[in-house]
Amino acid sequence: MGSKVILRAKEFCSILRSLQDENSNDSHTFEEDISIVKMNGGKNAVVSMYCGKQTIFVCEKAIPKVCQPEHQEMTETSNCDDDDGAENDGADDADADALQIELMPQPLTIMKARELLSWYTLSLNPGMSIVDKHPALHPLWVRCDMSDPAGTTWLGAEPVYVDTKITAIKLYSITCKGSTVDKQSFVTLEELKQEHKKRHNSTSIGIKGSARFSLFGSTVVENTTIESQSSVTVDLKWSHVESVLEVPPLSSTATLNIKVATGDMRSPMFDMYRELEFLQTLADGLRTGETEWMEPLESVSAVNLTKTYLEELQNTAKAPQEQAAKTPGTTRMKSDTDTPIFNSFLERGDLDFVEQLWVRMRKSVTSYQDIGDCLKLIINALRYGDIKPWIHRDSNSSLSKLILQSYHQQVDHVSLTGITPVSMLLEMGLDKIRKDYINYLIGEELTTLNHLWYYLNTEVDLQEQVIRLRKLHHLLDIIVTCSTFLCLPYDRLFHLTQSCLQYYKTAAYDEEHEFKLQIKPAIISHFYQKEHPMMWGVEVSSGHSALEVRTSLQLSDRPLVDHVIFDTDYPVETAGRDCEEPAFFSTMLCCSLVRFA
């Protein structure tokens, strides 16, 4: 019997080592029904509390391949009556539901999980002949089905090193309970201490608290959740915990987790987002040859708007000198879409001729023909000296260069065919929007031109310029969100700006990226002190360095495991939401230290 166990342990260990190779695949099927996956521990909310972002092995039930239902092809080609069709539709829905359930991570039984962990532990024990000179294995975690009385959802194991030698192994267990509003059912702080002391004979223990609150994100209106892709949460950590679910003290350390998705209608940047979207439409048209034009914001055609603009400029040239300051070339064209908040942030009073033209065209053009016709009117007016518009010195667009030539009665011929008109309009938009962003960032003293050089470089091609402008827009959306909704002080906004600028110099555009910002709790205390936490935790620990062991309790408004369905009277959608008595899921994390002889 013993030799058979050792043989199975060697086989299991061999598979783990092959997976640990950097060049190997990230998964392997063992015993036909067990899937072993190599992954970043940070991708799992509850496991990451113990192992952080280090690489781990996860064992779970292998997901069987789901074949297409035999009747599906018949449904698509049959000429059944409506009733039969309805029945088939119902069958398809059932198949879809079944498929969805199958694709969820599936747990193993508690007995199988313990067997896998015993093999893993055996393979690491220096006293066993099975152990070779290979590097130690990554930590192993096994999904469990909660079939035991404790409700175990995870079992884990991790080797402990002293120098390069394995001297012990940590065994983890994670148990869960469904959501409840009954606070009396939660483990008390004293019970948590006693649970820790049962496993670890230590006279000195440390206690730490943690909590996460939502400061900005999805909102609830009349019991309906309005989802948002943007979120700002705060993680607070403190010592000297006195009771479960206590409010974090002002002495806590606080970190903002900021994730902002552009296009949120609540954002003061929403109008700029629409302007950037039109710019992106032009860039996509150049790249693919196809353009999906946005709905015009103006009822007047682009050509008529341009003609009217030229007439205004010509009339202004004939008016007295004192009226020149009131020309359309120095004032911003108003629109019903402008909002007071937006204007207070980014409105500029120094829009030049090209920028004014961009404002009109981006709100009215609906075809390539519109762009070509508008630019033809402008270039002819420049060539014949009908207008003498002013532009900013640092304007880089092709149209700006033609305007400079017109000052000397010499305008180059431009063939407004092919992609030329679209490229010219794209350049105009890039120039204008860049200046809008610079105006805000420099005006608020959040950065300098030197730090913006990567984003302002016009030597790269137009497509790359658009990508960098989108990055700058995302950065600005983050800053404006934190400034408007959280009222962060200048020093924190400055630090956040520098962090975002540095990140996007090397990283690809990513709205899912979560930016971190250290902050004093007093600055945002009014947001969370009267609110219910998304997550609240307390941790009891003893020992030091690699031999440190922890026992913790986590209360959360959502389950921290994704492979079991909880028996609860409170749906996940309502647990922990705005109510007098929020419902919390309970997760207990325990650790045992086993020393090798």
From TrEMBL:
UniProt KW Cell division keyword: yes
Subcellular location: Chromosome, Centromere, Kinetochore
InterPro entries registered for this protein in UniProt: Zwilch
One GO cellular component term noted in the UniProt record for this chain: RZZ complex
Pfam families: Zwilch
GO biological process: cell division; mitotic spindle assembly checkpoint signaling; protein localization to kinetochore
Family: Belongs to the ZWILCH family.
Subunit and interaction comment: Component of the RZZ complex.
Primary role: Essential component of the mitotic checkpoint, which prevents cells from prematurely exiting mitosis. Required for the assembly of the dynein-dynactin and MAD1-MAD2 complexes onto kinetochores. Its function related to the spindle assembly machinery is proposed to depend on its association in the mitotic RZZ complex.
Protein name: Protein zwilch
